[in-house]
């Protein structure tokens, strides 16, 4: 599929593009509120366990790292007019509604269960399409989103939030979330003078 090969070429060129990395780092710092801190888990005896608090990011989850990066990639390099996603989860679509114009496919049952979040997404400008076919949960909106994407691949970027789907998506999600590990390494060196024993 042409869209996938174009996406891979674009992604590979961006991972070495200093301007893209600086713009993304600025967004992650100023908007997402990166760098997330480590907190010592109070567990009495035994090893010291520190928790990297991704839940303290703006929107309350790590998903924003990938969402912002993919939205920036599509906006800067692919010149696409639409971003679309399928979801059953709360955070990814809310994140996307924050960072770009997005069409969200969501199971009708999930829309009922997540009524407040649906309201939030619409308030942020997202267009939601309820999927009533099949079980009206995750599988069916995924199928609808992919159908939409392959029909409109010249104007649409499909954002996948998990390490799943066709290449290059798993690689992109992995690399865009690598900010967490890179921060952890840098923080450990600054705070404790070395890398953690176990990560």
UniProtKB/TrEMBL annotation:
SUPFAM superfamilies in the cross-refs: Tryptophan synthase beta subunit-like PLP-dependent enzymes
PROSITE patterns in alphabetical order: TRP_SYNTHASE_BETA
Cofactor(s) it depends on: pyridoxal 5'-phosphate
The species this protein was found in: Eruca vesicaria subsp. sativa (Garden rocket)
Higher taxonomy: Eukaryota, Viridiplantae, Streptophyta, Embryophyta, Tracheophyta
Keywords: Pyridoxal phosphate
Protein name (database record): Uncharacterized protein
